[in-house]
């Protein structure tokens, strides 16, 4: 006769965090980065009188939304407009528009419960996406036979979701 096996004592499982207890500190315990995708890239270069763009103004913004399948989406856009340092109205120009997305799966919560935290989610999305945008701008400008436009390192600010950041950068030649 075979002996009946005793079941091991049940381990106490940690309780799932309730969505009502969402805070900035616990926010990303409920969000899992699924993927990053490049949505759009538009670039344009126009050289006049042999002057090469060496000065650029960049503007970036991030918004948070929801996909039809219930995932959380962070949309980040960057607009770069470059010109020669001594630019005139009809001078050379370079324009690069980039649109990236972070797509998050949501665990143990509903998408609408993240609305109060949109600014925090947008900042983290920009932190994740910025290296991708930075590399893309550097690569595109190099392929245009321009000195590489190296964007500054991203530092989060106190701005909220959708608010744009505008910066100006000078392009260094030969790493100087």
Characterise this structure.
By secondary structure, this protein is α+β, with helices and mostly antiparallel strands. It has one helix at 118-143; strands at residues 31-46, 55-66, 72-83, 93-106, 165-170. It contains one helix and five strands; from the N terminus they run E-E-E-E-H-E. It has a five-stranded antiparallel sheet with strand order 1-4-3-2-5, with helices on one face. The radius of gyration is 23 Å and the shape is elongated. 20% of the residues are buried.
Summarize this structure as a short list of keywords or feature phrases.
single chain, 176 residues, alpha+beta, five-stranded antiparallel sheet, 15% helix, elongated, disordered C terminus
Give a quick summary of the entry.
It is built from one helix and five strands. The protein has 176 residues and is of the alpha+beta class.
